[in-house]
Design brief:
mainly alpha; 6 strands; 69% helix; 617 residues
């Protein structure tokens, strides 16, 4: 479903681009004649210099990315241009998609290369969703269970990170680069508008309900503060270290507020229950209702036990080590396979190679199972593969390929260390009982799955940057459409399903809690990464008594009209929710849901008209 949405949105953007190009008489991909360029393209450097000076004003809304003018060159000159232009180098990703687009195949086959990149983009969205749902979130849940965190603390910390992992990592990666920060702004603001209008409106249409007043107002106020802070930073075009840490500090304040309010509510509820019990004269009736609940729970548990016992062997059976390894690497459950449709089976077959790869490299601890998902041969194999994935994937393998004293590579040292550690664990454990330190595997799984998600998010941002250059689309538009929809559509269907099952308040809480986390953590961590990835600023005092080093201040591209359309629409939707929902006594009915859906439709239309120049200053 996520891939289908991204594919349809890509087609819509291409249609708008074609209509705009034909209507204005500028294709955006034509050749701009230059007197300095000879017919054979020998004087490319002089023509490029002329292009940069002549077409600097044509950059999208103040875009300072010099790579954006590559489509103004002839098809035969584009490959040399992306090879010699610093802004076209994608050093942080594994693949330079601009070089692949213009240099891999002849110029006549460039559309084929772009099509392959779009298919690869759809696959990367599947990687993000699958890694987050089946590996990242379960390990976070295991960590919170091991630390014995309350549901409130786990919900606004570990589980919020698990649910918003694709959004947070995509925003962090985009913010860490000056030329792709617009993607992060578009994705965060676009996802915020999408969730607060489309998802909230769909929940209201599916299951009209009365929202909890205090949590709703709390979440809206905190989110409005985060959006206002971001708008101020975009207006100034720069952010300091203190303001960056302020994002993280504001989220800490939000977590403390959630925990405190939950404690106060729980205390008041217990006090009210105690007083009602003391004043009530029908104590046996209260006890009978409680016993009924217990009877229901006992009956449900007995049904589950009967269901599980159906598949339990009559005689004790001890699996061999090889059979445990093979069954652990099988991503298909035969009982589920028989009940599913042929479409589900076809999609499952396509995803099986990816699932097997993730099963080979990411350990998963399940505290709900009796053996906590302990698979001795596979977990020992994880001690070899997981560290290798970390060193070969982090920063595009930069640290893994580093040679110690120019002789011994780091990945080989990591392999030897993993083999040694795996041998120790294999010789000191058994197949049937997990070791006392099995909980540490959840931490290892958390780290490895986070690195997988980060690597996939890095490639997604690089592909979107390439598509923006090729189709002359701004980073903001790509962020608010493809990146925002691709990261949010899965959670959106989950929230609507939860509402249809009778839990609309839980769905609304998940909507606002996730986007607050994504905004504050995504911007905060991303700006910190941009600061410390660059060279520090050296200041010399007047008396020359000491030298002070400061982290460089991140500079953002000048905000264009589309950015302010984004910010204004998000702020307006929050203000309307803050006013209209209390006026309706916190009841979210179908009329309110229709209003929210219409609001998003109007916003998307205005954003597209702004992007393609029909609305301008």
């Amino acid at each position: 479903m996520k891939s289908l949405v991204v594919f349809i949105s890509m087609l819509l953007l291409l249609c708008f681009q074609c209509i705009y190009g034909l209507g204005s008489g500028e294709s955006g991909t034509g050749v701009v004649p230059s007197p300095d360029r000879s017919p054979d393209g020998a004087d490319l450097r002089s023509s490029v210099g002329t292009m940069v000076g002549t077409h600097f004003a044509m950059f999208h809304q103040g875009n300072t990315d010099k790579c954006a003018i590559v489509m103004n060159l002839s098809a035969v000159d584009r490959c040399a241009f992306v090879k010699t232009t610093q802004d076209c180098s994608m050093e942080d990703s594994f693949i330079n998609y601009l070089k692949m687009t213009f240099c891999l195949l002849p110029p006549d086959l460039t559309p084929l290369t772009i099509t392959l990149c779009i298919i690869w983009l759809l696959f990367l969205f599947i990687v993000l969703g699958l890694t987050a749902s089946k590996f990242f979130c379960p390990n976070l849940s295991a960590i919170s269970s091991t630390l014995r965190l309350t549901h409130n603390v786990a919900g606004v910390t570990f589980l919020a990170l698990g649910n918003g992992a694709p959004d947070v990592f995509s925003a962090t990666v985009a913010f860490s680069r000056p030329h792709t920060a617009g993607l992060a702004i578009g994705a965060l603001f676009g996802a915020g508008i999408f969730v607060t209008t489309v998802v909230a409106g769909a929940v209201s249409l599916v299951k009209p309900f009365t929202v909890a007043s205090r949590p709703f107002l709390r979440d809206v106020i905190f989110y409005m503060a985060a959006v206002f802070w971001t708008v101020v930073i975009l207006y100034r075009g720069t952010i300091s270290l203190g303001e960056t840490l302020g994002y993280l500090g504001l989220y800490v304040v939000y977590v403390i507020t959630v925990i405190t309010s939950a404690y106060i509510y729980s205390h008041q509820k217990h006090s009210a229950t105690r007083s009602s019990i003391q004043s009530s004269t029908h104590v046996p009736e209260f006890q009978s209702s409680e016993s009924d609940d217990e009877a229901i729970l006992i009956s449900n548990s007995s049904i589950q036990e009967d269901y599980d016992s159906e598949y339990c062997p009559l005689l004790p059976y001890c699996e061999s080590t090889s059979s445990i390894l093979l069954s652990s690497l099988n991503p298909v459950d035969s009982r589920i396979w028989r009940r599913k449709s042929w479409r589900w089976r076809a999609i499952k077959i396509l995803k099986m190679p990816l699932e097997v790869l993730l099963l080979l490299t990411v350990p998963v601890v399940d505290p709900d199972k009796e053996d906590r998902n302990w698979r001795r041969p596979l977990n020992c194999l994880h001690l070899i593969t997981a560290p290798l994935v970390c060193v070969l994937t982090f920063r595009s393998g930069e640290y893994g390929m580093y040679r110690i004293e120019d002789q011994f590579p780091v990945w080989a040292l990591t392999l030897l260390f993993g083999l040694f550690l795996s041998a120790i664990v294999f010789l000191t454990t058994t197949n049937n009982h997990p070791p006392p330190y099995h909980s540490l595997f959840s931490l290892l799984g958390f780290v490895v799955s986070a690195i997988w998600i980060s690597a996939a998010a890095l490639e997604v941002v690089s592909i979107l940057h390439m598509l923006g250059v090729v189709f002359s689309l701004s980073n903001n538009l790509l962020g608010l459409t493809l990146l925002a929809w691709g990261n949010s559509i899965g959670d959106s269907f989950s929230d609507v399903t939860i509402a249809r099952q009778g839990y609309p308040q839980m769905a609304i809480s998940a909507c606002f809690g996730g986007i607050i986390f994504n905004m504050l953590i995504g911007v905060g961590i991303g700006c910190l990464m941009q600061m410390f990835n660059n060279e520090p600023v050296v200041t010399f005092p007047h008396d020359w008594t000491g030298i002070t080093l400061f982290p460089p201040t991140p500079q953002f591209e000048p905000a264009g009209l589309l950015t302010w359309v984004l910010a204004g629409s998000l702020g307006l939707s929050l203000v309307l929710s803050f006013i209209l929902v209390p006026l309706r006594c916190f009841h979210m009915g179908r009329s309110h849901g229709i209003f929210l859906l219409l609001f998003y439709t109007v916003f998307l239309l205005v954003a597209l008209l702004t992007e393609f120049g029909f609305i301008h200053t």
